[in-house]
Amino acid sequence: MSARRLLCVLLASACVVTAARADWSAGAPEAPHGKTGTACSACHLTSSWTQVKFDHERTGFALHGAHQKLQCASCHGGDLARKLPVSCAGCHADTHTGEFGTRCASCHEETSWRPLFDVDAHRRTNFPLTGRHALMPCQECHLDRRDRSFTRAALDCAGCHRADYDRTGALTIDHAAAGFGTNCRQCHVPWSWKDARFAAHETCFQIASGKHAGIRCRDCHTSLPTTTSASCDTGTASCQRCHTCGQVTPRHRDVSGFQCQDAKCYQCHRFSFSSDAPPARPRWGK
Hints:
By secondary structure, the chain is mostly helical. 25% of the residues lie in helices and 4% in strands. Among the domains are: 88-150, no CATH class; 155-193, no CATH class; 197-286, no CATH class. The longest helix is centred in the N-terminal third of the chain and has 25 residues, at 3-27.
């Protein structure tokens, strides 16, 4: 090839390259992630655009738990160069309205919003969870149903169980009429309302332990008083409901003055530790 012909070929090639560069510069797409540059291989793999190898820990916010499954745009939008807050409150709305601070990780795990503040942690508060309280979800006591926010629950029994107290008149003994207070734990255990104990009853007749432990009020009493009294003589206890005359009379043949009457039974068989009560006689059976 002559020198003249070779020169023409080289000039033509240079024109093509120059034109291509001009066209690319004029129509080149902008960087899709803001000012992060166009070095795609710094983050993306050639096998797929969805496979990213960016080490997020270098930013000072390592991705753990559910954060690992998020798309970049979920937090950064279209500009990956834009700095984001690293605090939990920077992205997550505080449903507790600032009551517990902004360090969500102290109570929540990153895999889900499941709280780490469990029953054991609640024991460090001024209301340890025992009995059925330990089985209840947090929002049962702490949720403000109107504002859908987390609230500080009441500590006194009536704060949650006032309705239970008010309807006792229709179920058992009218607590208000009988003069019972609203400190439910004085008589009730946290597992059930039914397993109640009445400490004042031990002075008159032992029911907290022994053969009569766990017996219900109406198992013995024909009616329940509307008020509490310092006297042990209620006139409503019916021993013969369980201990019939046919059962007890043969056992008392040698007992002077024996009468098969409720009041007489109680005079001897109080099963009480009271100093003025007669000694218990455990041999008296049903």
